[in-house]
Amino acid sequence: MNVIGDARKMATTIVDARASELDAKLDSALSAARKLLDSALLEAMTRTRNAIESKALEASERLRSAEAEADLKVKLRADQLRARYIDEVFSEVRRRLATDRGDWYRSYLERAISAVAQEASKGVKFTLLCRKDDIELLRELASKYGFEVAEGSTDIIGGFVALSEDSSMRIDLTIDQLLAENEVTLRGLISRKLFGDA
Fold this sequence. Notes:
10% strand, 4 strands, 4-stranded mixed sheet, rod-shaped
């Protein structure tokens, strides 16, 4: 028997066994490395996806906030413009009422004097105070009731204030007072006419 041949065979067998063992260990290490790599990749992808979703949510919230802020600014500006136009129309109404002395004004004064006459029938004596431009017209209309007419505020649009002789009663029938009492309603009407509000 040849010892060298047996040593080679034995060495080959040992090397083959060791190589097979190393291949198995290498396959096992490679499999473990792949699993670790897959796990690390999955974890990194999950973290990345979560970070992207979080950033997308933040961006979406910022966008919603910016949209809400922009909507609010637009609404505020629109409200400011609406208010300005309503103010302009209301001022124009006041201006026209101050200058238009047509039939409507005469009729208004007659009804107002009649209302004061009802109070005067209770024994109260009144003096009617009006603006200078209306003294003659008011004297003509009030003459049948025996009211004294005097110049009052020149700042009023029209109408008059009835003041009792002892100053205990004051009835304000100025157009200014009527506008003030009905301003909210009038502004609503102007808004509906201008903007078609319901």
